[in-house]
Amino acid sequence: MSGHSKWANIKNKKAKTDAVRGKIFTKIGKEIAVAAKGGADPATNSKLADVIAKAKAANMPNDNIARAIKKAAGEGSSVNYETLTYEGYGIAGSAVIVKTLTDNKNRTVGDVRHIFDKYGGSLGNSGSVSYMFEQKGVIVAERTLELDEDTMMEIALEAGADDVLSDDDCYTVYTAPGVFSDVRKFLENKGINFIEADIEMVPNDYITLDEKQTETFMKMIDALEDNDDVQSIYHNVNLPEEEDED
Known about the structure:
The chain is an alpha+beta fold. It has eight helices and eight strands, in the order ααααββαββαββαβαβ. The protein is globular and about 45 Å long.
């Protein structure tokens, strides 16, 4: 499953730019607004607490988080977002799942289909590729000198996690979806900082594309990420790690 961590690394490096960071904050703000409709107090609304943890992992300022919660709880909040999931194939039979939050279903499906078509893919029916994935809680934590591999494994298993994978710069903790919130809270209380925390669709196997196919695939992913309605993208392509720009 090392491909997931490589994908996370690429995503985090891309997020260094202000424009990309701003777009990420906008998308998470929509998730907060939807979650907060179930109650504005994260102590009694576990879904909101999970999204706030995701926001903090993305370095979203507390003011932005508070503003999104307040907006959702306010009388003037009239926009109702619908959660829609699309499945399809990218170039060379790669499997892609796209999760969206939209106030206009026709616009969103049209945009997503156009992006798939433009880059040699095709939008499929519900269930066409999801069988290749498993829903899991995914928590990526920074690897530090103080947090060695044995300690991380011990804490995660005590919290109720299923597995921990180690990379050079991070740990990826996998949980069952039903215990994700509890594991996340346990790790937070241990003072562990998250790079990423969310329930995701994790592929059972990864495929490797050639250089030209990878370039086309990445253009498709970038186009999907640029769409305001798209919240999350999951795929089974083992992407190469980017070089540090520092």
